[in-house]
């Protein structure tokens, strides 16, 4: 079952808050005396709100717009004001300097003596010229009331049957009409496995709009209950409606997996069943698992990368299964800025054609040699034992493990691809790729995982996302070798810090770095018959001038000739003809 709480955003209109809705917004002044910024509603604003319109956006002191939901229990003007005040005070500021604007924020419903009319007043907790309160309708898309005309899509996976695209075509008058369209569209899906037929034919979608906590909301329910019963919703690559309808964990919805029936189902002794400290009354038929809470969205995944800032020893970065072009672009950009790590990205689970792969690569906003993307998704046995058939899983985790295995066996200069790069743990592919199809994907920097009779599942591509923009580093092993050399040399020459910056130090640096580079040459990391052909290390008076010495710098120039993978093996066969008979 998946449940999506609707966040309708016309609360500011009904409350008459915000300049665009007739309200008055006044910035604070520097004084004397200092005053605080306020937002005053129109006279006689609404004092009750329907379930579809309990959301507003508030911006304190320019800290950034924040969406808040007014609780369903707030049914009077004073209760609405108190709910807004408590909710805003509980928010964490985007900028710590604005904390006082939140902790001291007040919201009141004022009822002056007649003939004056009642109104809402929202006041920032800070004072001064920067103090202000701006209120608008929620920027979160309205859901459950209407969808625009034209196609609306999302991806659904019922009972782990595999992702299926759902298409509904609007416009729809209300949430009930949307739920009916979703139900009919899912029931028409042909399952991948016959055993899952009931999950689709009896699938249900309802729009819950009764007053109360967690409403209005869409609820999608599998037609086949029991262990393994589930409804998972993800975003579509085009005309996506999952975000508007708030369906799926990444869009604020919740998903609960079904449970097996307890045995005996009709016990006449209720005290045999204990859940926690309380006794279960009556016959026990089934239990429902609790929810894990909202899964991290794209913003959480992107912001989470910053947690790696304080960790130096980061080699490979990946966010498995989050095949958002925004997340992949952010990950590649993060590694590009650091210059000491490499990002591995996934395509979407539903991308199973050459056109899908090309569209995903084209949608990326950051394409540098510090990242690579792999296609398609893989199939593996469900490690939880829930699904009886193989499940689709993202390739990036398998690829990262292959990187580590080949690094330890051969070195970072060896391309993590080819017959040696077996994908351990997977048992199949989400889509098969031919040689002709791969000819379209290689040049755009999309690496393909393929199946060959003699080798099994193998990674059959070693291109970075900089394939078309940075020819020098179009290959993954070349970029990762450069990262390895830079970081190893940097860490290995820290002894030079605060040493006298003169020829003895330069000579010592040349000796240490040269010895390290010679080890890599002997391991096969560089081209060339001799060390002179393979690399050079220069650190002398030509690289470090007197101005550099005065500034406390020592400059080292290291060059290397990397080996590049034999991506194509070309055979030329010639037939000998006209030979004299023996």
Described by strand count, sense and barrel closure, the largest sheet is:
5 strands, mixed
Mean pLDDT: 84
Tally the helices: what do you get?
Answer: 15
Portion in strands: 15-25%
Describe the structure.
This protein is α+β, with helices and mostly antiparallel strands and 582 residues long. It has five domains: 9-137, no CATH class; 150-256, no CATH class; 260-290, no CATH class; 298-477, 3-Layer(aba) Sandwich (Rossmann fold), CATH 3.40.50; 493-582, no CATH class. Helices cover 25% and strands 19% of the residues. It has a five-stranded mixed β-sheet with strand order 17-18-19-23-24, sandwiched between helices. Helix 9 (354-363) links the parallel strand 18 (342-346) and strand 19. Helix 7 packs parallel to helix 8 (325-338). The protein is flat and about 115 Å long. The model is unreliable at 3-8, 140-145, 260-268 and 270-280 (pLDDT under 50).
Explain the layout of strands and helices.
Blueprint: E1 2-5, H1 11-15, E2 24-26, E3 38-40, E4 55-60, E5 66-69, H2 77-89, H3 99-103, E6 106-110, E7 119-123, E8 133-137, E9 150-158, E10 164-170, H4 175-187, H5 197-201, E11 204-208, E12 217-221, E13 231-234, H6 242-245, E14 254-255, E15 274-275, E16 278-279, H7 298-304, E17 316-318, H8 325-338, E18 342-346, H9 354-363, E19 371-375, E20 378-380, E21 391-393, H10 396-409, E22 428-429, H11 435-441, E23 446-452, E24 456-459, H12 476-492, H13 503-523, H14 531-534, E25 535-538, H15 546-550, E26 557-560
Parallel strand pairs: 17-18, 18-19, 19-23
Antiparallel strand pairs: 1-12, 1-14, 2-3, 3-7, 4-5, 4-8, 6-7, 9-10, 9-13, 11-12, 15-16, 20-21, 20-22, 23-24, 25-26
Helix pairs in contact: 7-8
């Amino acid at each position: 079952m998946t449940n999506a709480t609707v966040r309708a955003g016309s609360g500011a209109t009904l409350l008459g808050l915000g300049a665009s809705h007739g309200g008055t917004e006044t910035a604070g002044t520097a004084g004397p005396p200092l005053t605080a910024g306020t937002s005053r509603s129109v006279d006689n604003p609404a004092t009750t709100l329907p379930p579809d319109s309990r959301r507003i956006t508030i911006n304190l002191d320019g800290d950034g717009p924040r969406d808040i939901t007014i609780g369903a229990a707030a049914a009077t003007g004073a209760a609405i004001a108190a709910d807004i005040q408590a909710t805003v005070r509980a928010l964490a500021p985007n900028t710590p300097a604005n904390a006082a604007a939140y902790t001291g924020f007040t919201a009141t419903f004022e009822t002056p003596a007649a003939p004056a009319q009642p109104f809402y007043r929202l006041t920032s907790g800070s004072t001064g010229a920067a103090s202000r309160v701006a209120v608008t309708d929620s920027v979160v898309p309205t859901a459950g009331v209407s969808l625009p005309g034209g196609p609306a899509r999302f991806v659904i996976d019922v009972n782990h049957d595999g992702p299926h695209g759902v298409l509904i075509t609007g416009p729809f008058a209300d949430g009930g009409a949307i739920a009916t369209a979703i139900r009919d569209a899912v029931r028409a899906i042909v399952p991948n496995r016959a055993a899952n037929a009931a999950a689709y034919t009896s699938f249900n979608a309802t729009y819950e709009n009764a007053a109360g906590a967690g409403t209005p909301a869409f609820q999608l329910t599998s037609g086949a209950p029991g262990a393994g019963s589930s409804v998972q919703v993800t975003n579509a690559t085009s005309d996506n409606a999952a975000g508007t309808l708030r369906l799926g964990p990444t869009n604020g919805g919740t998903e609960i997996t079904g449970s097996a029936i307890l045995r005996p189902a009709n016990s006449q002794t209720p005290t045999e069943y204990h859940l926690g400290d309380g006794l279960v009354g009556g016959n026990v038929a089934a239990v429902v698992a609790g929810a894990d809470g909202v899964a991290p969205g794209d913003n959480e995944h992107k912001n989470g990368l910053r947690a790696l800032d304080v960790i130096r020893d980061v080699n490979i970065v990946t966010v498995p299964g989050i095949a958002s072009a925004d997340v992949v672009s952010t990950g590649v950009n993060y590694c590009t800025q650091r210059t000491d790590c490499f990002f591995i990205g996934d395509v979407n689970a539903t991308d199973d054609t050459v056109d899908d792969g090309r569209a995903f690569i084209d949608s990326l906003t950051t394409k540098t040699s510090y990242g690579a993307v792999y296609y398609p998704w893989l199939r593996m046995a469900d490690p939880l034992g829930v699904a009886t058939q193989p499940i689709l899983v993202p390739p990036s985790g398998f690829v990262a493990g292959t990187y580590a295995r080949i690094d330890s066996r051969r070195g970072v200069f060896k391309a993590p691809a080819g017959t040696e790069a077996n994908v351990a743990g997977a048992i199949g592919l989400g889509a098969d790729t031919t040689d002709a199809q791969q000819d379209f994907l290689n040049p755009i920097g999309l690496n393909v995982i393929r199946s060959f009779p003699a080798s099994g599942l193998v990674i059959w591509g070693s291109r970075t996302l900089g394939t078309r923009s940075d020819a020098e580093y179009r290959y993954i092993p070349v970029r990762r070798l450069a990262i390895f050399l830079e970081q190893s040399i940097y860490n290995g020459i820290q002894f030079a810090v605060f040493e006298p910056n003169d020829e003895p130090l330069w000579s010592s640096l040349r000796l240490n770095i040269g010895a390290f580079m010679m080890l890599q040459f002997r391991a096969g990391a560089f081209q060339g018959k001799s060390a002179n052909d393979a690399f050079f290390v220069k650190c002398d008076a030509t690289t470090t001038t007197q101005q550099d010495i005065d500034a406390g710098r020592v400059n080292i120039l290291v060059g290397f000739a990397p080996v590049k993978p034999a991506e194509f093996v070309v055979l030329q066969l010639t037939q000998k003809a006209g030979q004299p008979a023996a």
